[in-house]
């Protein structure tokens, strides 16, 4: 029964709030030389300490799956920044009053918001070359955020975000 519940939770999380990711990178970069990584020691992620641990854990697993290992002498460093913002509801109900008489007209219209505003989280991940201290790859993700989510739901959400962020790393040559 537990696997069914986990699958339902996973489907609910995936279907409820899409994850949008934009990528950017330095075209002249030789991505094959980056085999080891670590994190900036002075990262200010904007996440709670527990959420930061969750995100780092899922990023480590995703990087390991790509064959890139964490090292004390890394080829590149990872920096994580995040912010939360509230998006107002786009659904409104219009109420209008109007009149028409002989060559005289008028009207009033009011849009009443329906539903509540949505909380979104933006996470920016930078890959910085250790030797030159230059940014060579960046991913910017935006997705819905539930501040009341359980620890399991948060970790599952971070896994989806990390997988989507790293889906196009390294970039394919065109």
Task: Characterise this structure.
The protein has 174 residues and is α/β, with parallel strands linked by helices. The protein has one domain (2-87, 119-166): Double Stranded RNA Binding Domain, CATH 3.30.160. The chain has 3 helices and 8 strands; from the N terminus they run H-E-E-H-E-E-E-E-E-E-H. The strands form 2 sheets. Strands 1-8-7-4-2-3 form a 6-stranded mixed beta sheet, covered by helices on one side. Strands 5-6 form a two-stranded antiparallel ribbon. A hairpin with a 5-residue loop joins strand 7 (118-129) and strand 8 (135-144). Helix 2 crosses helix 3. It starts with a helix and ends in an 8-residue tail after the last helix. The relative contact order is 0.23. The model is unreliable at 9-15 (pLDDT under 50).
List the helices and strands and how they pair.
Blueprint: H1 2-16, E1 19-25, E2 36-39, H2 49-65, E3 69-70, E4 76-87, E5 92-101, E6 104-113, E7 118-129, E8 135-144, H3 151-166
């Amino acid at each position: 029964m537990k696997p069914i519940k986990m699958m339902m939770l996973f489907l609910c999380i995936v279907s409820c709030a899409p994850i949008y990711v934009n990528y950017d990178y330095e075209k002249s970069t030789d991505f094959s030389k980056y085999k080891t990584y670590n994190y900036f020691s002075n990262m200010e992620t904007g996440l709670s300490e527990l959420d930061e641990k969750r995100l780092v854990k899922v990023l480590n697993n995703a990087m390991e799956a790509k064959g890139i290992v964490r090292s004390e002498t890394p080829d590149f460093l990872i920096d994580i920044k995040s912010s939360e913002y509230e998006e107002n509801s786009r659904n409104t109900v219009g109420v209008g009053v109007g009149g028409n008489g002989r060559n005289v007209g008028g009207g009033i219209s009011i849009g009443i918001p329906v539903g509540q505003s949505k909380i979104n989280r933006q996470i920016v991940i930078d890959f910085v070359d250790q030797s030159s201290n230059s940014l060579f790859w960046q991913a910017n993700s935006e997705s819905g955020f539930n501040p009341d989510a359980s620890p399991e739901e948060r970790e599952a959400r971070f896994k989806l975000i990390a997988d989507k962020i790293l889906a196009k790393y390294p970039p394919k040559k065109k």
